Amino acid sequence: MQRLVIGLLGWACIALGLVSAQGVVPGKVFDRFITIWLENRDYADVSIDNSIADLKRHGILLTRYYAQTHPSQPNYLAAIAGEYFGLNHDDWVRLPENVTTLVDLLEDKGISWAGFFEDIPSPGYMGNHSDGSTGTDGWDYVRKHNPFVTYDSITNNGERLLRLDSFNVFQRAFAAKEVPQYVFMTPNMMNDGHNTTLDFATKWSHKFLQPLLADKAFDERTLIALTYDESESYDKPNHIVTLLLGSAIPPALKGTKDNTLYTHYSMLSTLQANWGLHNLGRYDVGANVFKFVADRVGYTGNKDPENLLAINNSVSYPGLLNDDPSVRLPIPAPNLKLVGAGGLGILPAIAATWSKDETRQTPYDGSGRVCDGERNPPIYNKVAGGPP
Ligand SMILES: *[C@@H]1O[C@H](CO)[C@@H](O)[C@H](O)[C@H]1NC(C)=O
Ligand SMILES: *[C@@H]1O[C@H](CO)[C@@H](O)[C@H](O)[C@H]1NC(C)=O
Ligand SMILES: *[C@@H]1O[C@H](CO)[C@@H](O)[C@H](O)[C@H]1NC(C)=O
Ligand SMILES: *[C@@H]1O[C@H](CO)[C@@H](O)[C@H](O)[C@H]1NC(C)=O
Fold first, then answer.
1. Of 40, 70, 119, 136, which is best to mutate to test ligand 2, by the most ligand atoms within 8 angstroms of its C-beta?
2. Domains and CATH numbers, the chain
3. Taking the complete model, does pTM exceed 0.90, yes or no?
């Protein structure tokens, strides 16, 4: 009986993606990363908000952080895959098993991870939306704000699927000091501001973050990135607020600003730099690393993209998931030859899958050039040979 109980407990811990003290993989600058996603507001409006002003005292405000495109969904997909595959809408989409994500990079190094979605009806739920626990008629949990369920490489694996769970499970893990090392969090459509106001979402965030920012909230150095998926205006350049918080922020940097140019791909390159991860061979390579991390690990690749002035990241470029059939393209092959911010090449398993494709052309060159659907389409080049 005792064995059975222990066995079941062990299984429950795996299912929830919890970490035990000896299971923590130390990073160079932080040991845990939590990103929390709010919806659809412009930098100009959020940066003067009172709740954000109070939170800013605890962290670093990134003043030049831009989303990838509009509307919401492609930005979420991009944040874990380094690519949004031409997506320009919020409807149901799915990507095949051979498209790899951050999850593969983390698991390769034994780093625990989870996605927490407020009001998700059950662990690993793959439906379009929930039944409306907020009383808003089925608009509290939405699939378009959960990138993980779009990737077959995640949903075809039961253990991975079970790592997508509710905010209640997060709160239990937090109380038990067993929060996984990488955490992606989406509040429901009220708390993230989608169906409410700017002020409603920033007040919610302020309250939600207080216990996470308290002294000794976590035993390990924890970096929290509060971000928006995209701006509200489409006529301006998709400029959003991202705030870096948590015990991993050096005291001297609290209340400061960082004027480096970032996009959602910077989360991927920063994680690679911190944990010495392999890369995905997509736009993760060449994305600027959060400066306080880059400085500490000695990463010197940060720079403005060469096409900075021409970028219009309000329009999606052509690709597989575009709703205009005339601009659909196959899934681009990753570039197998790039070295990323983790100092390593592409994950060997990704190289093994894609090197079979002899005709492959790739738009990824590691330059940090930002692509869009207007003046900066991806430029495909043939890249011969295998990994570096
Ligand atoms: C989700 O929406 C898509 C269309 O956007 C539809 O084909 C699919 O059946 C829906 N799934 C569920 C579980 O309702
Ligand atoms: C919430 O947003 C969705 C999608 O834009 C919309 O269809 C729905 O009516 C909104 N619900 C409320 C309560 O505002
Ligand atoms: C980007 O393109 C959209 C659609 O063509 C246009 O409405 C918007 O003004 C452009 N924005 C910028 C910053 O050029
Ligand atoms: C990736 O998977 C898709 C869908 O199964 C398939 O069409 C494509 O050929 C695959 N590409 C490679 C390089 O395996």
1. 136
2. 2-382 (3.40.720)
3. yes
Please report where in the chains the tokens 């040979």 appear, as a residue: 385
pLDDT per residue over 44-53, tens digit each?
A: 999 999 999 9
* Cα-based angle 184, 189, 192 (whole degrees, multiple of 5): 55
For ligand 2, whether the C-beta of 195 sits within 6 Å is yes
Three-state DSSP state, 143: helix
Place of tokens 């990704």: 350
3-state secondary structure of 316: coil
User: Which tens digit of pLDDT belongs to each residue from 317-338?
Assistant: 999 999 999 999 999 999 999 9
CA distance linking residue 81 with residue 101, whole number of Å: 5
Q: Which residues contact 95 (CB under 8 A, 6 or more apart)?
A: 77, 81, 85, 150, 151, 152, 153, 320, 321, 331
Spatial separation of the C-alpha atoms in residues 157 and 137, rounded to whole Å: 31
* Exposed e or buried b per residue across 304-339, where buried means at least 16 C-beta atoms within 10 angstroms of its C-beta: ebeeeeebbbbebbbbbbbeeeeeebebbbbbbbbb
